[in-house]
Every structure is written in C-alpha cells, then in structure tokens.
Amino acid sequence: MSEETLLEDLLAGDHRALARVISKIEDRSPGARELVSSLYAHTGEADVVGITGSPGAGKSTLVDKLAETYRKRGETVGIIAIDPSSPYTGGAVLGDRIRMASTVGDMDVFVRSMSARGTLGGLSTATADAVKAMDAFGKDKIIIETVGAGQNEIDIVRTADTVAVLVPPGSGDDIQTLKAGILEIADVFVVNKADRDGADRTVQELREMIELGHGGGVVSSGHHGVDPSHHGGDAGGSAGDGTDLEEWLPPIVETVATTGEGVDILIEKLTAHRRYLHESGRSVEVARRRYAEEIRTLLREDVNGLLEAHLEASGGIDALADAVRTGETDPYTIADDVLEPIERCLEGKEDTSNR
Questions:
Q1: What integer is the mean pLDDT of 217-239?
Q2: Mean pLDDT for all residues in the chain
Q3: pLDDT value of residue 126
Q4: In sequence order, what are the beta bridge partners of 110?
Q5: What is d(CA 50, CA 80) in angstroms, rounded to the nearest whole number?
Q6: Domain range holding 190?
Q7: Crossing angle between the packed helical segments 15-27 and 3-11, to the nearest 10 degrees
Q8: pTM for the model
Q9: What is the distance between the alpha carbons of residues 250 and 208, in angstroms, rounded to a whole number?
Q10: Where residue 101 sits, what CATH number does that domain have?
C-alpha cells in the first residue's frame, strides 16, 4: 500500500490504517518521514493529556477510567502507553496493556503501546509522531501514559497540552525526591488511591509545595504557567480589570481509579486547564515551544545519523577510539576534524545568502 493511500485511509477513519501508520513511524520504515510530514496539515484539534508519576501510582488504571468516562461523553480516545524498552528487542515490554480492560472491544478507544527505546524522558520522536497520527485521524482525546521513571519524565511536556502528575498517598519522601523535577511540570496533581492511609497528608504536603512555589519557591505554576508578575488564581481568567489573566495554580484532585471515584472531577480540571490555555493566549506559546523542540530533535537525529555514516565510511568509531587509547589523538581533536567540513559548508551558505 502506498503512503498516499495509507494517508487517505487514515483520514477516512480506518483504524487499520492508523495502526499501520504508527507501525511505520515506530519502525522508521521508508516513507515514514514523508508520511508524518503530510499529517501536520490535518492536526491541531485533539486535546493531548499526559499522565505521569512514580511507578505504582496507578497510572494505567486511571487512564482506563479516563477513557471509559470520555467514551460515555461521546468522545473518541487514543492512548499511547510508553512502556520500558526490552533489553533484547527494543520493543515494548508490556505489550497491549491488558490492565486497560474497561474499553476492550470499543473501536473508538485506540490503545497503542510504544517502546521508550531508551530515549531520555521515556518519549521518543516516534511517540510525538504517533500523537500526530491520532490527531489527524480525528481522535478527540489523546492520552499519553509514561513509564514513570522519575525526573526525566519532563520530556512529556513537549508533547502534551496538559500534564497530570500522579502521587501515591503516604509518599512524603517521594515528594521531596521529585520536587526538583517531575513535580514542577504538573498542571494538575492527582493523589490516586485516595482511600488509603496517608492520602490526606499527601494532599496537604502538595498544597504546601504549591503555595511555596507561588511565593517564589519550588513549584511555579505548572509547565504552562504565566508570568510570575501576574495575579494568582486557581484556573485562569480575568484578573478583575479585563486585561490581566490570572496565574494557573495546579489543582489537587483525589481519585480512586479502581472504582472511578474522582475521575469526573479530574476531567473537569483537565478541561479547565485547556480552556485557560486558549483564553490566556498561552496555547500559541505552547505550540511554538513544542514545534521548536521538534525541530531541534529532528536536527539532532539527522546530524547524528549523517555523522555516524561518515565515521563508518572512514573506518568506524572503534578505530578512532583506539587512536585515543594509544595516545595518537584525543576526542576533542577528532570532533573538531569531523565537524570542520560541516562548519565550512554552513559558513559558505551564510556567505551566499548575505550577498
């Protein structure tokens, strides 16, 4: 099947085409790059939510309940579950996420497990491209569930419009560990398993951290917060004079994902954050930042690929490593030598464009 036919079938709502497109994206098959490029003109409508947090916080169960609730409201859902990479194949270890059982058989809930492939933050370029595929397909809600591997989860910020960070009850020590990283990216905090002992204490600790951050401390205002000089508020909106917009302060929602308790309230907070982004004008900045990061990532990958191919053609990286080992040269000199022709090329293009 040609890329053009595959794209047409995806846009026509064929789930098999969506699955094939994501497979091509993940495998980086021939034509995948051009296919993703064609998707961009059909994106921008989906609401992308990131669910992250420490392992054991109940992310998969909560995602399942979110999908079930969205479906009851008549909305279609795409789920990308980022799984730990297999050390042998690089593929997703947890397969098709059997924990997400409530929506099995519902074709309007499309679940795809993807391998983290060792990428920093658990999100590969393929994941961001898969979001584009689901968006172009027409999914109303796209949920990304991350591995939950700690501070590097901040990479999800570059893909999701709204980030919910799950914190299990009684995790005071975890909060202290995470506060310098993952907690800073939260637009919404979720204390899941709120029926367990320690939930009230965890909520209080989170509230104190948010208040501290609002006063100039650890947690600022989520990864989409406004300028600190703006007035504070719970969910954005007018500051009172019709011109200024309140700062978004991450709300704390208590849930029991196994029973669905609190899920409706969580959805309300997620919706409020999306509304805040649009009404405050922050959505434009968020999109600009995301696309800038996508460009940087692609450039890094492409340049790295070109350099790897050049090194292989020149005898391979091992030969250069041996030269360093025997004292003939050093890594900095090698890097300068390899990059010199690229720098000359770029300088030549700059000179031509300035004429």
A1: 41
A2: 81
A3: 83
A4: 78
A5: 10
A6: 161-280
A7: 130
A8: 0.82
A9: 12
A10: 3.40.50.300
